[in-house]
Amino acid sequence: MGCRAPAEPPAELSSSTIDIQTAGDPKETPPPELLPGETVVKEGKAAILFPNANEVFYNPVQEFNRDLTCAVITEFARDLLAERGVKVVVPGEKEKVLVSLTEEDPEVDAEADLTTEKKNGDEESAVVATVGEKCELGLRVLEGLAASGLRSVRFALEVPGLLSITANDFSAKAAALIARNAQYNGVSHLLQASCKDASMLMYEKRGKKERYDVIDLDPYGSPSHFLDAAVQAVSEGGLLCITCTDMAVMAGNSGETCYSKYGSVSIKAKYCHEMALRIILHSLDQRAGVYQRYIQPLLSVSVDFYIRVFVRVFTGQATVKNSASKQALVYNCVGCGSFHLQRMGRRTINGKHMKYSAASGPPVGTECEHCGQRHQLGGPLWAEPIHDSQFVHKVLSAVAGNPSRFGTAKRIEGMLSVVTEELDDVPLYYTVDSLSSTIHCNTPPLLKFRSALLHAGHRVSISHACKNAIKTDAPSAAIWDIMRCWEKMNPVKREKLSVTSPAFKILSTEPSLEACFTAREDANPQSRKRHLTRFQENPHAFWGPKARAKAGGGISTNLQDKRKKFQNKRKITDSSPLKNFPCKRFREVGLGISTIHTHNTHTSIVLCLLQISLFLVFFVVLHLCFMFSI
Q1: Percentage with pLDDT > 70 across the chain
Q2: 125-164 b/e with 16+ CB inside 10 Å = b?
Q3: Taking the complete model, does pTM exceed 0.85, yes or no?
């Protein structure tokens, strides 16, 4: 069914519209019956047929990801379709109406009524797009790696203003399941199943008239080999929704692998989750720049075991020149964790023209000024804001005003509330526990530490990526001065500190300011005052990434089975009694004793053989002496 104007009578619908409506009506096309071994998985408004054999990948933990994506695409469609004269209507959403609170003046009430009537008249003349309907002026959506098609089916049932949805998967079994799920949910008029390589499908749609308005990529692992095609296949101002689950690579465990995939070196640091977001944004901007395109991040979140970014892509040769100045290298001290950012480029305004030049650096010396240790070099990474505050407020307002729309609405509200409180112009963050661990002192309460920064004249906020994070524009010297002041109130035993340790070097310097730890009202953000759900507790054991589905059917070995398989590789044959002890260190000591005992046994055997050999030699010498004496 196309986008409709509410004032039109049903008789004026065209025959093609009626045909499309009939084809997509679940009453006319009966849903497919369940096959043996299939179950129905319900999420949101979708009901998905899913094989018990797990031939197609499905992860129920990603419900938050799918809910957030539906909310973001809805607001994106609302903004984009408003330019085309289409009004988006979401079920259960209350319209914001401005009314006059004046009761004494009837003329004011009459004027308000005229304004309301005019507004309603304009809305009746506008084209309306609702969920489940095909909008001729709507968005073209591609889910490149659809698996069971759950996300695409939810788009069709929950996101208004869509023209078409292409749910693609390289697995033939997955593509067949997508088609059945589309028919089962009655959205075949919107959703088409596709069985192609995702990159080749996007390369085929690089033409300006064939591009997708929204491209969603949620791979099992890294999306790096899809990014080049994605930045070309998305329309002008279109939306890219990218998920990365290879957090071990992006969080610093394999910096060289991260560079080969994303063109950036990741390092192990407390801010690794935000750094992962900035690495994927850098990679997207770099690949878009090849085609004279650039990105505008709308929302970037680090959630559970993955990261998710929503960016718009535009074309502009002049704006692409700013790309170098948007990237930065990060110098991270291995001793105290202090970091400094170095922009890759520099731009200055010269009258009406923009002048570009190389950046000067480095911003640090050969050794850290605070602890004397060396620096690690990471990046390049995206150094500009990772959110669009205005857009995030729109999504937050829509979710909070319609809490029954999503199953994870409370967490979305909590997460986006923290995002809106972040300092958008301050990359990366410190953590209070790591600062305290460096100088071996008690950890100050977050409220007191944030208050001390505010008293010192600096800005400070929390971060959605880490519950103990401190995002601040204060230099590292000011942060360590505050920690020195805290240590004076909670002294450590200096005599136990090594002379070469970072703690000794930092505490040997007197603070240059007098920190005030009196709690301030503005140091406690609203998300904490309202006790919003920001960081979800683990729902159950082993709830993270599931095992990858096999292309030929079936499922790969369970992760827990792999863990059991690769454990217990100790040399000792029987270490079962040692496993009963709760303390890991005691087990290690016990294993060490067992190893020493085995080693002593071998030594005893060698000594016995040596004694026997000496006895034989002595006997032979004695016998020879006796013979010569005769």
Answers
A1: 76
A2: ebbbbbbbbbbeebbbbbbbbbbbbbbbbbbbbbbbbbbb
A3: no
